[in-house]
Amino acid sequence: MILKNILLAFAVVGLIAGCGNQNGTNTNQQVGDSVVSSTDTTASQQQGLVEFEEPVFDFGKVKEGVVVEHVFKFKNAGTAPVILSQVSASCGCTTPDFTKEPVLPGKIGEIKVSFNSLGQVGTQQKIVTVSSNAENRVTTVQIKGVVEK
């Protein structure tokens, strides 16, 4: 009989803990002689958010062989630090360098992109893919323009 009551108490505790706490707030409820406590889940729901000031940079017209550089700045508009895990270019002629430290909420991070126009005559559009732990896990920036002979 005691075992049956203990199992019933655990079942009730499980139901109470599993239901009704959808807003992530901390609640304590009395069940028999026990206090059931659910923890605040908002901390686990916090995420960073990458917002670029200028996701496209048009370098205009340049002569072949010129190296064009541009720094893309982004703000972490989220509530948790953003960590860039990978930044890769669509072409070997484009080289990205990026902020390696976590970017705290409200702070600015940078991605410096260098485009070597040697052998790239004509209209150019190079895409840089940015992977992170942010809410928008994969974002892109692009550098474009015309390379003249």
Automatic annotation (TrEMBL):
Bilayer-crossing regions: none
Signal peptide coordinates: 1-17
Protein name: DUF1573 domain-containing protein
Keywords, comma-separated and alphabetical: Signal
One Pfam entry name: DUF1573
Domain of life of the native organism: Bacteria
InterPro entries the UniProt entry points to: DUF1573, Ig-like_fold
